[in-house]
Design a protein that fits this description.
One of its GO terms (molecular function) is Hsp70 protein binding. Keywords: Chaperone, Metal-binding, Repeat, Signal, Zinc, Zinc-finger. The protein is an alpha+beta fold. Among the domains are: about 110 residues, DnaJ domain (Helix Hairpins, Orthogonal Bundle), CATH 1.10.287.110; about 100 residues, HSP40/DNAj peptide-binding domain (Sandwich), CATH 2.60.260.20. The protein has ten helices and 16 strands. The chain has a five-stranded mixed beta sheet. Strands 1-9-8 form a three-stranded mixed beta sheet. A hairpin with a 5-residue loop joins strand 13 and strand 14.
């Protein structure tokens, strides 16, 4: 009986043998059963469903399908590779993947183990720096939620040479001075009778370990090109001041490192119109006439989304009185509602300022008769 270990070895061998055939694989989107506009979540979900039922450890007869599904997922789950695949096809994406892997062949089982919790890869490509933008929005935007498009300038790997900087692979040669190491050892005399060896960057290839006989005509040997793309930012209702939205792999590309992230940080004015924000709550000030303060009133506040919030009092309202109106504050994001006691919105607090009128003689006489003799109590 063949053991699991033997099946695994046979499956890996079979995958290696059929690798050249996979180059003529079906459209990656078709392989995963998704549309060309599928989201990252849809791509992961499709791979999860297919990979579980094709793993050669349990289904040796499906090794070829497993390889095809994994290759499609590796490409479409990487923003840079997906972009190259959409524009230039599978061969171009594979060349870029090979550069990112630094010549090491990828194991499709590593993808499976990482995806289903089997541990991260030991050799990971370094990541480039991120870029941070500030999005200035209003308090109304944070209440209602807002979607907008922002333009983002970055460098992308040259699609003509795939980041090599050379006209073709035939024009890339190992440096004859350092034999590809990128450095040289020189002897330097510090003082009479005292000599030391020093390792320095190779001046011929500038540390690259290779030279280019003919540079790429598109990027002129720079390996990258300036590019402008658009980022769709969707601010959820109730987002906090300083909330950050991260777009992975959307920063500058480089043939030597993975692209960094673009971070959009929300900045808002704490007060828009008559509303003020404190956490999940909103505050609003109403100016009352003396009549309304004494006899009561029936007002309403127009909220950011246009709905009316009734503010009613039938008794005396003292200066500085604060009315709490439940669930009329800021929306509370779904993942914070449990901590907020299940509320979907914060509260609205209305404070009142009584504006005393200027009185003419007749009004003073009437009030004097109403209240009687003024008080002379010592304070």
């Amino acid at each position: 009986m063949i053991g699991r270990a033997s099946i695994y070895v046979l499956a890996v061998a079979l995958i290696v043998c059929i690798l050249p055939l996979v180059c003529a694989a079906r459209d990656y989107y078709e392989v995963l059963g998704i549309g060309r506009r599928a989201s990252e979540r849809e791509i992961k979900s499709a791979y999860r469903k297919l990979a579980r039922h094709m793993h050669p450890d349990k289904h040796p007869d499906k090794a070829e399908e497993f390889m095809e599904v994994t290759e499609a997922y590796q490409t479409l789950s990487d923003k840079e590779l997906r972009s190259i695949y959409d524009r230039y096809g599978a061969d171009a994406a594979k060349q870029r993947q090979a550069q990112k892997d630094n010549g090491h062949s990828g194991d499709p089982f590593d993808v499976f183990r990482q995806f289903f919790g089997g541990g991260a890869a030991s050799d990971q490509t370094p990541k480039g720096p991120s870029k941070t933008y500030q999005a200035d929005v209003s308090l109304s935007d944070l209440y209602m939620g807002r979607s907008f498009t922002m333009s983002h300038s970055r460098y992308v790997v040259c699609p003509a040479c795939f980041g090599s900087g050379a006209h073709s692979s035939a024009h890339i040669h190992t440096c004859s001075q350092c034999q590809g190491s990128g450095s040289q050892v020189i002897r330097q005399q510090l003082m009479p009778g005292f000599v030391t060896n020093m390792q320095v960057t190779c001046p011929h290839c500038h540390g690259a370990g290779r030279t280019i006989a003919k540079v790429c005509s598109k990027c002129r040997g720079e390996k990258v090109l300036a590019d402008t793309t658009e980022i769709e930012v969707e601010i959820e209702p109730g987002a906090k001041e300083g909330a950050e939205y991260v777009f992975e792999g959307m920063s500058d590309q480089s043939p030597d490192v993975d692209a960094g992230d673009v971070v959009v940080r929300v900045h808002s004015t704490p007060k828009t119109g008559d509303f003020r924000r404190v956490g999940h709550h909103l505050y609003y000030t109403i100016l009352l006439s003396l009549r309304d303060a004494l006899l009561g009133f029936d007002h309403f506040i127009t909220h950011y989304d246009g709905h009316k919030v009734p503010v009613v009092r039938s008794s005396v309202t003292q200066p500085g009185y604060v009315m709490r109106i439940p669930e009329e504050g800021m929306p509370i994001p779904y993942d914070e509602r449990e901590a907020a006691g299940g509320q979907e919105h914060g509260d609205l607090f209305v404070d009142f300022v009584v504006v005393l009128p200027e009185l003419n003689d007749e009004q003073r006489r009437v009030i004097d008769q109403l209240w009687g003799v003024p008080s002379h109590t010592d304070l």
